[in-house]
């Protein structure tokens, strides 16, 4: 142990909704929010996905402050109490487990040394995209 180092880990509860089954070319919007008592303005929000639950690499999709000019767009609601991911046209290879993550904003500042590090990540949805529009 290094002397003088003290780290406290605080769990941030990211609230979730259920799985979704969608069709190719359909739009989808996923939303996440933080549990009561946590303020989203204190966190940097991220979206990730994992195409295969068994050892596949996790792909970072977008961070709240990134330009949303690609296929993946993110936004906050007007009260900044929920953070959403929009995919306007789904492809078969978008079938994935999607994650929302909250990282305390102080942890991203260069030279910032805080005794409280807060990082939360929660599995939110499995989105399965079907090419079959059976009735």
Automatic annotation (TrEMBL):
Q: Does the keyword Ribosomal protein apply?
A: no
The name this protein goes by in its record: Ig-like domain-containing protein
Pfam families associated with the record: V-set (PF07686)
Q: Which residues form the Ig-like domain?
A: 18-116
Q: Does the keyword Membrane apply?
A: no
Give me any GO biological process, just one. adaptive immune response
- A Gene Ontology term for the protein's cellular component: T cell receptor complex
Classification via InterPro entries: Ig-like_dom, Ig-like_dom_sf, Ig-like_fold, Ig_sub, Ig_V-set, TCR_variable_region
- Give the highest taxon in the source lineage: Eukaryota
**Record's keyword terms, sorted:** Adaptive immunity, Immunity, Immunoglobulin domain, Receptor, Signal, T cell receptor
């Amino acid at each position: 142990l290094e002397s003088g180092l003290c780290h406290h880990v605080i769990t941030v509860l990211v609230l979730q909704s259920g799985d979704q089954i969608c069709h190719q070319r359909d739009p989808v919007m996923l939303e996440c929010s933080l549990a009561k008592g946590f303020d989203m303005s204190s966190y940097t929000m991220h979206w990730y996905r994992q195409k295969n639950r068994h050892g596949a690499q996790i792909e970072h999709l977008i961070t709240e402050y990134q330009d949303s000019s690609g296929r993946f767009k993110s936004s906050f609601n007007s009260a900044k109490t929920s953070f959403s991911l929009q995919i306007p046209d789904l492809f078969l290879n978008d079938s994935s487990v999607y994650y929302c993550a909250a990282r305390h904003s102080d942890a991203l500042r260069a030279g910032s040394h805080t005794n409280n590090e807060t990082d939360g990540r929660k599995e939110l949805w499995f989105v399965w995209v079907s090419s079959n529009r059976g009735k």
